[in-house]
Amino acid sequence: MMAVAWKQTAAEYKALYYQAYNIARMQVDRALSTRTPGDKTLAVLMDMDDTILNTVNYWGYLINNNQAFFDDSIWDRWIPENKVVPTPGSVDFLTFCKDNDVEVFYVTSRNQGPKTFEYAMDHLKINGFPYADENHLTVLTDTSNKQKRQDEIGNDYEIVLFMGDNLNDFKRVYYVTDIDERTKLMEQDKDLFGRKFILLPNPTDGHWIRAVFGESEPPPTNTNREILRKAATRSSWEQ
């Protein structure tokens, strides 16, 4: 509940988005300034949920219904309601990209049945995001592995940066179920953060949860509540 309250109310939460998109713009500006004739077209790769789309309305519903864990069935009912709004700074940054002929590709993992792609496209169009078309939106319904699509885009474009709220939005290598191994892999790439990888804040869901529970959407069992408690007390003052 504390994490959801933070997302709902904290000015710091919004500031982190502005900070991320300001850094992203600096990196795009830098790439534009070094262009030479014949270079590949520049591109940025974007995750959607909790990167360009704010999903806090969904989490508020869970809290109102005494749910402390992500619920996939509720999520699938919530998605078509179009309650998402743009995250702070996202529309301005991506419009800046379009105005400077930098292509924007959206790669997201969702599965709400046959209309999954339609729902995702609606979220882009309703919220005024550029490049809201079939060539620029990829919806992965049966996997969270974005690497193949990222590599395909990289063959044709110079990818300036990746933006996401989950390490898996950058590279598949981070998709591990050991907390310390995941941290070690991240540390190996520390020089890329703020340069090639721009990470957005998300304390409520993502593959960090998979590293804790062994699955990304653990059920709200007493066993999992105890696992969560142990994770929250990995470092604890002892008297």
Summary of the model, kept short:
With 239 residues, the protein is of the alpha/beta class. Helix content is 44%, strand content 13%. The chain is globular.
Into which percent range does the helicity of residues fall?
A: 40-55%
Task: Please provide the ordered H/E string of secondary-structure elements.
Answer: HHEEHHEHEHEHEHEHH
Q: Would you give the CATH topology?
A: Rossmann fold
Number of domains: 1
| CATH class category name | Alpha Beta
The CATH superfamily appears as HAD superfamily/HAD-like
DSSP strand content: 5-15%
Q: What is the CA-based Rg, rounded?
A: 18 Å
For the largest beta-sheet, the strand count, sense and barrel status come to: 5 strands, parallel
CATH architecture: 3-Layer(aba) Sandwich
Helix tally equals 10
Overall pLDDT confidence: 96
Low-confidence stretches: none
Order of strands across the widest beta sheet?
Answer: 5-4-1-6-7
Which outline best applies? Answer: globular
CA distance, first residue to last residue: 27 Å
Q: Which structural class matches the secondary elements? A: alpha/beta
Give the beta-strand count.
7
